Amino acid sequence: MKLISTAIFLLFLSGCSSVQPISFSPSQDYSVSVGSSLFDAVRIDVNDTSLFRKGKAIGFIRIEPVPEGSDSAEAFLNELKLSSESASTNTTPLNLPSGFTGFAAKNRNYVTGYLFSETHSDSILIFSFPEGDFDEIVKTVSAGI
After folding, report:
1. Domain locations along the chain
2. Strand 90-93 relative to strand 56-65: parallel, antiparallel, unpaired?
3. What digits encode the pLDDT tens for the residues 92-127?
4. Which end of the chain is more exposed for a tag (fewer CB within 10 A), N or C?
5. In whole angstroms, what is the distance from residue 135 CA to residue 3 CA?
6. Alpha-carbon torsion 59, 63, 69, 70, what sign?
7. Contact at 8 Å (CB) between 50 and 60?
8. What is 2-138's CATH number, 3.30.420, 3.40.50, 3.40.1000, 3.40.30?
9. What is the pLDDT of residue 90?
């Protein structure tokens, strides 16, 4: 069934000629829109959506549950931030809509966003895209559909 729905989705995308944003909602708590011109194929796994262009991965959208040992989503996010920071990786706070908290880590030409919804703090959203596309994508973060 999953294969059939993925095939239908890909056929739908191949018929789209405009550059409209397509919303991905990996859970009921999160939604992110990506311009259809950025990708030509999608692979959907449990809690993970990968986007491809010409056979190469260009980004992903992933949901990670907050581990049971963490005090909160915010504490887990702070742990991720500390582990992401290094001499070659810069982290910066994300300018997100009200109700969301997070940061971005830049490594080489990719930026990865880590955030959580303050109203649904049992999971975090992680997404990564090329630096030139990331800022437009992060503006589309909203509650899931």
Report:
1. 2-138
2. unpaired
3. 999 999 999 999 999 889 999 999 999 988 999 999
4. N
5. 31
6. positive
7. yes
8. 3.40.1000
9. 83
